[in-house]
Amino acid sequence: MQQQTTARAAASARATGRERWFGGALGGTVGLNQSLLAIVIVLGLAIELALGQLVTDGVFAAGVACALVATLAAVAIPWSRVPTWVSAFLPLFDIVAIALLRQSSPASGFGLLWIFPAMWAAWAFGLVGAIASSALIALIYWAFLASTVLSGDGTLAASTLLLPLTVAAAAVVTALMAARGRRQNRLLAEQSHELQEALGRAETQERLVTEVLDAVDFGVERIALDGSATLTNPAQRRQHAAEQASARRFARDGATEFPEGEDPVTRARRGELIERELVWYGAPGEERRAVEVTSRRLGADGDAELVIVSQDVTEQELALRAREDLVASVSHELRTPLTSIIGYIDLASDVPALPDPARRSLDVANRNAERLLDLISDILADGSSNRTGVQIRVAPEPVDVAELVAAAAEAATPRAAEVGMTIDQQGIHPAPTEADPRRLRQVLDNLLSNAVKYGRHGGRIELSCGIDRGTVRIAVRDDGPGIPAHELGSVFDRFFRSSLVRGGTMHGNGLGLSISRDIVRAHGGEISVESTEGRGTLFVVRLPLVQRLTR
Hints:
Layout: H1 2-51, H2 58-76, H3 89-104, H4 115-150, H5 162-215, E1 219-223, E2 229-232, H6 234-245, E3 249-250, H7 264-269, E4 277-281, E5 289-297, E6 306-312, H8 314-349, H9 356-385, E7 397-400, H10 401-418, E8 422-428, E9 432-435, H11 437-454, E10 460-468, E11 471-478, H12 512-522, E12 526-532, E13 536-544
Parallel strand pairs: 8-10
Antiparallel strand pairs: 1-2, 1-6, 3-4, 4-5, 5-6, 7-9, 10-11, 11-13, 12-13
């Protein structure tokens, strides 16, 4: 495709060159060349007339007539509209006219004028024109010279042979120079065509970039080395208007006010590099807007120009704050009744005559209520202090993970029995290490709760624990519907729920696995998931055998 384009460009350039050469350039050159020749002939005739050497015979009249016809044709004919070969008759007429004038007056020196048609033919038709015109002039000159010598009116000398040779040399030089000029003109035409195409592509690209910048909803501003803005798109102009409307600017928390000239936008315009910093325009309680700012250098040079990208994130920030406020509010509201429930369970457990089965049931209820209280505390901490993950603190102590796994299985057994599920505990083996038993139990309860909740009714849950390749390995496998492959990467994201359960009767907030992952990582371990849609899911937790952890 590129070769075809280049070939078309070259052909177009050559055609354009020919049109310019044989059109306007040729017409102008024909008229100029013929006019100069006519002026020289008139001057020559005037000189001969003044000296009394003018011979006005029939040969003279024929020569003047030929010169006059050629001059009128050069001026009257539109050479850009006729075939190129037609112009060959002009030098032919001139050669004949000069020959007749010289013959009528051999001593006048009119033969020197042959150089005009010879150079013109060489310029218009190249070496072919130079050779043809030189040969014709030489034949005519030598024919006249021979007749003069044979008649006894003249003598043959070396100087008499120089005229045709001089004319031929001038014609050849003209042909070579004309060929070189044509090559240069073609090269210039091709380069001009390529430049026009490059200019067209640049204009198209500029128009495309402008349209894109006008269409996007984030601001783009280019800052020159002197601090002036050389490019600003409409979104940036709108944001700039919002900046001007509010003199007070606050940090991401919405309460810390920036000192004068220290907000991200002003610093970026001074040349500082900014990475996703947020600024609030307007004081708390007023109508305000949030803008996220990033600045980058346009080149590797440390002194290069900058581009500032700013995006209005008011709606996103308000939505995040609303969600955080809701989570915090709900968490606070749930803590009071849960604390009361735990207290009454403790009171009921202290009754002396309480049967052992009831006491065990109260212990299970108490553990789950405490787990729920811990979960609410984590949600509260997440909503009030951190948007990227729960801040987990662990208190490690020597513990056999197998005991925690067995206790979690015991707590999950009644609910599993309600849906006809069984929990296989044959894979539980001793696994001593250092861990926070309360936090680790939280992970186990969450994994078993999910296995019971999302597993197949009447299905089976395999629970295993042991030492594997220098780590403590805990595995929970169910035979439920599984997780689609395209969702596996989002399983541990906060508020994520699989498409297989969304919109159903199963409840959940999508925080359990995210919190579990943070707890495992706080222990220096990792949690992973494997799933095949329709064949169940496997969660694997790996913990260090012994790990000194910071409380």
